[in-house]
Amino acid sequence: MIQFFHGSIFDSKCDVIVIPCNIHGGVSSSIARELRLHGLSFPRIDIETSSVTFVENISKFTSASVIAYAASVAGSYNSTDAQVMDIANRLKRYCQEYSHRKINIPLLGTGAGGMSILDSFNIFKAVFESDPRIHLCIYTPSDSVYAQLISMRKAAPKEETIVIKNPRVFISYTGTDLTHRNWVRDFACRLRANGVDARIDMFHLRP
Q: What is this structure's pTM?
């Protein structure tokens, strides 16, 4: 499922939050302010074009489990469809592998990358619409861009939509020893791999 939101990628809880950057670790001034505000690390210097660095979030920012730094801009060069497609596929594979369900992301490539809104959206639509388990939340702080996204959605031909509701469970257990804790963790992973949104303290709770 893909939804549009007017605001910041930091506005709602998610499993993975995507931070756009260039290959030198540079971010926009608005993203830099948000990273400082939430005590998040800046991207490391010299990242390969179209790569994504996934970092488990251990900061005071509790609205995301994983921070994904996506190098969507190659220095002073514009982003290409192939680069954004690579990033989208890397994000999808990561979420499928670790059973993450919700991604907060801006329209990569449309800022300093110079891509059109339509081109960027169509890439993410092509990659993610085949997996209804992943909820892709596209954020934009721009009034005009948000209005354009909404108009695109209204203009799109109506298709039959199949809504799959994944059950959510919380696993309560007594960790008597390491073997027991590992068994419970593996059980939770099996549930998540089979469409059950299993919640467990070692994955979702913070100190």
A: 0.73
Mean of the per-residue pLDDT values of the chain: 86
pLDDT for 161 beyond 50: no
The backbone region for 195, taken as left when phi is positive above 0, alpha when psi lies in -120 to 50, beta otherwise, is left
pLDDT score recorded for residue 76? 59
- Chain-centroid distance of CA 159 in Å reads 25
pLDDT value at position 152? 77
Determine whether 48 is exposed, middle or buried from the number of CB atoms within 10 Å of its CB (0-12, 13-18, 19+): exposed
Alpha-carbon span 124 to 45, nearest angstrom = 26
What percent of the chain has pLDDT above 90? Answer: 39
SS (H, E, C) the chain: CEEEEECCCCCCCEEEEEEEEECCCCCCHHHHHHHHHCCCCCCCCCCCCCCEEEEECCCCCCCEEEEEEEEEEECCECCCHHHHHHHHHHHHHHHHHHCCCEEEEECCCCCCCCCCHHHHHHHHHHHHCCCCCCEEEEEECCHHHHHHHHHHHHHCCCCCCCCCCCCEEECCCCCCCHHHHHHHHHHHHHHHHCCCEEECHHHHCCC
